[in-house]
Design brief:
Radius of gyration: 27 Å
Shape: elongated
Order of helices and strands: EEHEHHHHHHHHHHHHHHH
CATH architecture of the largest domain: Up-down Bundle
Strand order of the largest sheet: 2-1-3
Helix content: over 70%
Strand content: 5-15%
CATH topology of the largest domain: Receptor-associated Protein
Number of domains: 3
Number of helices: 16
Number of strands: 3
Length: 409
Amino acid sequence: MAGKATAEDIFIWEGANNKGAKVKGETNGRSVALVKADLRRQGINPIKVRKKPKSLFGSSGVKGKKVTPGDIAIFSRQLATMMSAGVPLVQAFEIAGRGHENPKVQDLLLSVKNDIESGNTLAESLAKHPYYFDELYCNLVQAGEHAGILEDMLGKIASYKEKTESIKNKIKKALFYPIAVIVVAFIITAILMIFVIPTFKDMFTSFGADLPAPTLFVMGVSDIFVEYWYLVFGGVFAGIYTFLEAKKRSVKFQHILQRMSLKMPVFGSLFHKAAIARFARTLSTMFAAGVPLVEALQSVAGAAGNIVYSTAILRMRDDVSTGQQLNITMRQQNLFPNMVVQMTAIGEEAGSIDAMLGKVADFYEAEVDDMVDAISSLMEPFIMVVLGGLIGGMVIAMYLPIFKLGQVV
């Protein structure tokens, strides 16, 4: 086992997925602990994790950026396009691998290509890299191969990955504004407190008069910033670092954050709609691929992205396995809006669950788009109000003694 590692280190790992099957692969990371945490988030129980010897891959390893879900989505679309154009599977992987600008993506795709050339199916080859191709992805590919509709299934997978990544990016966009406000407000406040306010304090001390309470408060805060600036900045950075590390390493902490996110004002509704959109889109894609409902719900639970919905979907899977209708089990969870339950019920009666859930996904994806646009529009004046109130309040507090002195004169 290796201790600390650089960002370029590659680790060889072995583990078991949530079905108990043994899986193994390679991934990059900074340490064994971080790699284990990442694997657990992917639903893999790590058994062995070790740094790959440099002699196996050169003196410096495979350079390049991390392989992101966005890279997998782009590759999925490329593969679907080439397969529909009649390009053989091995050649399609060769083209996509050699043509990608990220060496780590090249290494991943060419590794899958080599497995296919060795006689493995595409699903089996992808399953060797569960860190990048999750159970849902592999199940859909396997269903496409068994039914002889791999080209069509790859198109569905590409659309699914693109839509789920689009929702993620929209949520990140919505969260960017409040974070930006906090960062900018802190930086401006620190500059004023450390460099500007002390100048006014020296001037007011020479007056020898009683100062207004707001001025004394701002000057007191400025004294803290000037004298303990290293503690202020150190505390902020330490808090951010601790938060990010806990979020990365602790599954329990991630679950707490996911539960809290659903209860946030404004953003809670956004997260609920995004989770419903992902649930509907994933189950629709799985059902259209011919995957049995119980097995599909198992994969959907792993792709829900929120522990509240994952737990509810697993309960639904258990109820469906005993013969209950899907719409009844959905209603019992008290998470899905009536419209979603009714659409599912109609789909079950008409034998078109995939089509109905696809319409539900379209509706809620549009709702997420509208909410993100609305939040973005509201955040612009909100930023102005927050920064204006913060800076204006400090300016007024500093000028109050001058106004008071002018009245006396």
